[in-house]
Automatic annotation (TrEMBL):
Top EC class for this record: hydrolase
Protein name: Alpha-galactosidase
Predominant localisation class: secreted
Gene Ontology CC: one annotated term: extracellular region
Pfam family, one: Melibiase_C
Upper taxonomic lineage: Eukaryota, Fungi, Dikarya, Basidiomycota, Agaricomycotina
Ranges of residues in domain CBM1: 18-54
Family: Belongs to the glycosyl hydrolase 27 family.
Source organism: Jaapia argillacea MUCL 33604
Cross-referenced Gene3D superfamilies: Aldolase class I, Golgi alpha-mannosidase II
Length: 491
């Protein structure tokens, strides 16, 4: 019987394909798909590259989607009533919701890629309230908060092994978090910052603490009551009947078992009274870039990061294949930062930060912030790269382009261009292990519309300085694994 729900949904979805579904694209430069939206949704212009089907009534998605999911009949009523019923009813072990929610994520959070910190890369399971609070205080003292960093996020290992036997709630570990998560959240909020937590779409987290599959409503209610602003939702310990083997019903990965596990948490989160940003830590599985924006605000494109040049280049190379998925409320997550960890050179740390910024990945620092030196602080607080990343008017990332000056293809690509509120930016990664001269011909740069002998002003984003006026092309010597970042403006 369970199989009938995804089959029914996919049949309905394909019948309605002439009109855009919830949160789907419905216009923009080069767009050839549907330009109208299904009933209850309106095609809203975001920018020249993107229009999107949004709820017809308001900016908040919470109220309108119960009605928009009416095609699945009984499921919408169980979704809207499930918060209270789960809390009172289920001491039973597998309280899996019987419906498949179609509700989308909140539009009150997650428009721009998150900027913050997560404790995992620095501390792993050895997390505590003291370490989280130290990171929050460093946001203030090191100028990170002024630069726009907001989220201080707890990863795995914050809970006790067993749920509360009466309420079914996850219980914070009282040794690590003596004031609970709510006490810590209050301290973080008092600094003007936001706090994130970690959960898992399986029976246990990756480190073996309680998973939220079947407990989405009770856990989302706990997170909300503690004051949580952000959820990273991992993908460990998934029962075999909840995994995907082969293609999902109708070939639509939105109806895969993986997506449905994440959709159940979407519905639970949007039923709360405050917006919670939702990161799908799904490791690039189930073609998540195709449906991630209908379910959450950002989604992991890979397994865990490591503090190596090979990780940085391989995740850039993966991500550049799926940049069409990136826009406001929709971010490919290249995983937490490794600046400050391992043996990355300063050039590699600059490339790491620049690429996460120009591809609009969440940037969550992953180190003991008190150990960063002044050069590293200046990298992660670079105001012009952060302004590109956080641009309120343009949601699309920079994209690779073919440069007629390069001698061959590289992995990852070396030349990228993208628009911001200030104009057209070019980013060039030297993927080689030695210094090389990189030349951009202005005619090659998408968006500049240059003629062959036109002059442009070139401005260095790293140093916030004007480099001069150049005709036809601009060339610069770039150190091994370093990245050039410039703004190019017509004279
Ligand atoms: C997997 O099995 C559990 C326990 O029988 C059940 O509650 C759940 O609905 C099943 N999941 C799917 C996707 O069929
Ligand atoms: C900061 O650390 C990097 C290594 O990560 C080093 O190359 C650089 O010289 C240091 N800068 C300062 C100012 O100490
Ligand atoms: C380049 O041309 C496109 C399409 O014709 C236009 O939208 C864009 O504004 C132009 N860019 C500049 C920098 O003039």
């Amino acid at each position: 019987m369970k199989l009938s729900t995804p089959l029914l949904l996919s049949a309905l979805a394909s019948g309605a394909s002439a009109q855009g579904g919830p949160y789907s694209q419905c216009g923009g430069t080069g767009w050839t798909g549907a330009t109208t939206c299904q009933s209850g949704w309106t095609c809203i212009y975001s920018n020249p590259y993107y229009s999107q089907c949004l709820p017809s009534t308001s900016s908040s998605s919470t109220s309108s989607k119960a009605s928009s999911s009416s095609q699945s009949g009984s499921s919408s009523s169980s979704t809207s009533s499930s918060t209270s019923s789960t809390k009172t009813s289920s001491a039973s072990s597998t309280a899996t919701p019987s419906s498949t929610p179609t509700v989308g994520p909140s539009r009150l959070t997650g428009k721009l890629p998150a900027l913050g910190w997560n404790g995992w890369n620095a501390y792993g399971c050895a997390i505590s309230a003291d370490k989280v609070l130290a990171a929050a205080n460093s946001f203030v003292s090191l100028g990170l908060q002024d630069a726009g960093y907001q989220y201080v996020n707890i990863d795995d290992c914050w809970a006790e092994q067993a749920r509360d036997s009466t309420t079914n709630s996850i219980v914070p570990d009282p040794t690590k978090f003596p004031n609970g998560i709510s006490g810590l959240a209050a301290q973080v909020h008092a600094l003007g910052l936001k706090i994130g937590i970690y959960g898992d779409a399986g029976t246990a987290t990756c480190s073996g603490f309680p998973g939220s599959l079947g407990y989405e409503n009770v856990d989302a209610a706990s997170f909300a009551s503690w004051g949580i602003d952000y959820l990273k939702y991992d993908n460990c310990n998934v029962p075999s009947n909840w995994t995907d083997s082969g293609n999902p019903p109708g070939g639509d990965w939105y109806n895969s078992n993986s997506a449905i596990r994440y959709r159940q948490m979407t519905a639970a989160l949007v039923a709360q009274s405050q917006p919670i940003q939702y990161n799908l830590c799904i490791w690039g599985n189930a073609n998540v870039w195709q449906w991630g924006a209908r379910v959450g605000h950002s989604w992991r494109m890979s397994g865990d990061s490591s503090a190596t040049w090979s990780y940085i280049t391989s995740i850039i190379n993966t991500n550049v294949q799926y940049l069409d998925a990136v826009n406001f409320f929709a971010h490919n997550d290249m995983d937490m930062m490794e600046i400050g960890n391992g043996a990355l050179t300063l050039a590699e740390q600059r490339t790491h930060f620049a690429a996460w910024a120009f591809l609009k990945s969440p940037i969550l620092l992953g180190t003991d912030l008190s150990q960063l030196n002044s050069t590293q602080i200046s990298i992660i607080t670079n105001s012009e790269l952060l302004a590109f990343h956080q641009d309120p008017n343009i949601g699309t990332p920079a994209n690779p382009f073919t440069s007629s000056t390069s001698s061959g293809t590289t992995t990852p690509p070396e030349f990228y261009a993208g628009a911001s509120s200030k104009g057209i930016h070019v980013f060039v990664i030297n993927t080689a292990g030695s210094t090389a001269t990189k030349t951009m011909k202005f005619v090659d740069v998408p968006g500049l519309n240059a003629t062959s002998s036109q002059s442009f002003k070139v401005h260095d984003m790293w140093s916030s300085s004007d480099l001069g006026t150049f005709t036809t092309s601009y060339g610069v010597s770039v150190g091994a694994h370093d990245t050039v970042a410039v703004l190019v403006t017509p004279v």
